[in-house]
Write a structure and sequence with these properties.
two-stranded antiparallel sheet; 8 strands; disordered N terminus; mainly alpha; binds calcium ion; four-stranded antiparallel beta sheet
């Protein structure tokens, strides 16, 4: 989406207004209000699961584990007991005994799944490292190729759902490298292991029940019922509950098949997902902007919404010095604080956020969608001398802030709005720019 195009479309549409909060109830992964909080941050240190099959960051951002929780007392026999207990619960929810027994035939406790689950927060990336990979030359070129190869399909999807095809392709590119890595874990085995595991059993038991319903519906054969270690399935990594509410049969063969090599159903399902969450066609997710000297950094806050023409009055303009068109109300996002790139972000940012709440993911999708339609790289520099804080360092920062009277309320290693506000207050107290960026430099000053 180039800005010129957007401006033209906007003019044709007669302008647009900022919608209210998007419906947070439908999304690939269940997220709590706390998760949403985490993403509403000026800081985007992204937890990433290695290896990089999917670029989905912060799979479940609220979940932060310490190494000691790696110790698991799970056993295969305990797992089998759990399946026995679970069976009547599944049957009460409409799963037939035959489908259940076939689905669970030979299913084993998968310790590797639990290791992945526990390790999520151990790997962190800065936003610039994340974006280097999200919008790498290879991913941009493959995205352009996908747009060409599937042009006719994507045009039909765009017309039917009113969702720009480049954003659908960008999600495809980040979730599975355009279908290359759709996940090879057996969905039932992974979800059963996670449901048996005590950490988040209610969430995963719900996913498991829905997975069994999918199997029972005949949309997919057991042999093809594959996904990520966490049960995200197909080209664009839907979890079972999202599949049940939003997947569509686009090619009309009677099956909602997001697993097959043909991406038609998966891409249409993704467009449907974005449409149902309020996508505004032809509108930007965000625009890179220039922040003027003397800017009041406390205005860089997701809750402060103004029209771009109003932001322009205080000097926030695009990188060519031009006013950003009034695509709708926008807030200022500084994902790496005052020393990194700045964006005006719009309603479609919130819509992408329903797919994954991490700022880095949303910017990654938006930027990749811009790149595959011909836009250039992000032009501002990032503070590349910074590194991501470790989990322990994030907790140390919270402890030090709280001890100095800047209460973060929680010492949980998650950089959410409370921590950002505490960082801002600390920055103001020492005469620094209050951008709320929880950097290593701030930690050093706290020490
Ligand atoms: Ca189909």
């Amino acid at each position: 989406m180039r800005i010129g195009v957007i401006a033209t479309v906007l003019a044709m549409m007669g302008g647009a207004t900022q919608a209210g909060t998007v419906d947070q109830s439908i999304r690939p992964l269940s997220r709590t209000a706390q998760d949403i909080e985490v993403s509403r941050s000026a800081v985007s240190l992204v937890s990433v699961v290695a290896p990089q099959n999917s670029l989905r960051p912060n799979l479940r951002p609220a979940v932060v584990q310490t190494p000691e929780t790696l110790i698991s007392t799970a056993t295969q026999s305990g797992f089998e007991d759990w399946i026995e207990d679970f069976r009547p619960r599944a049957l009460r929810q409409g799963i037939s005994a035959d489908v259940f027994d076939r689905a669970f035939s030979g299913v084993q406790y998968d310790a590797a799944v639990i290791r992945r689950d526990r390790n999520q927060s151990e790997f962190t990336k800065t936003i610039w490292d994340y974006l280097d990979s999200a919008a790498s030359d290879a991913r941009v070129n493959n995205g352009k190729a996908a747009l060409r190869k599937h042009g006719s399909l994507l045009n039909r999807i765009e017309t039917q759902y009113g969702v720009d095809k480049d954003v659908v392709v960008a999600i495809w590119g980040l979730e599975s490298a355009y279908g290359t890595f759709r996940g090879s874990n057996a969905v039932i085995g992974s979800l059963a292991t996670l449901a048996y595991d005590a950490r988040r059993s209610d969430f995963f038991e719900e996913q498991l029940i829905e997975a069994l319903k999918i199997l029972q519906s005949g949309d997919v054969r057991l042999v093809n019922f594959k996904g990520s270690w966490a049960g995200a399935m197909g080209h664009t990594q839907f979890i079972p509950t999202s599949y049940q509410s939003l997947a569509v049969d686009f090619d009309g063969d009677g099956k909602r098949d997001i697993w097959s090599d043909d991406p038609a159903d998966a891409l249409a399902s993704t467009a449907n997902y974005l449409a149902k969450n309020g996508w505004a066609k032809g509108m930007p997710w965000g625009v890179e902007v220039r922040i003027p000297q003397g800017f009041d950094y406390t205005l860089a806050n997701r809750d402060i919404l103004r029209m771009p023409s109003d932001w322009a009055k205080i000097g926030i303009v695009d990188l060519d010095g031009k006013e950003v068109p009034d695509h709708g109300s926008a807030s200022v996002l500084l994902p790496a604080g005052a020393k990194g790139a700045a964006f005006l972000i719009f309603k479609n940012f919130d819509v992408i956020e329903t797919y994954n709440t991490a700022d880095a993911y949303v910017i990654g999708v938006g930027h990749l969608s811009d790149r595959i339609t011909g836009a250039g790289p992000i032009r501002s520099d990032w503070p590349r001398e910074d590194r991501a804080l470790t989990f322990d360092e994030r907790k140390e920062m919270q402890r030090l802030l709280t001890a100095k009277g800047f209460d973060t309320k929680k010492i949980d290693g998650k950089i959410g709005p409370l921590t950002i506000n505490a960082v801002r207050a600390f920055q103001q107290s020492i005469g620094d720019i209050p951008d709320g960026y929880a950097s290593l430099n701030i930690l050093k000053k706290l020490r």
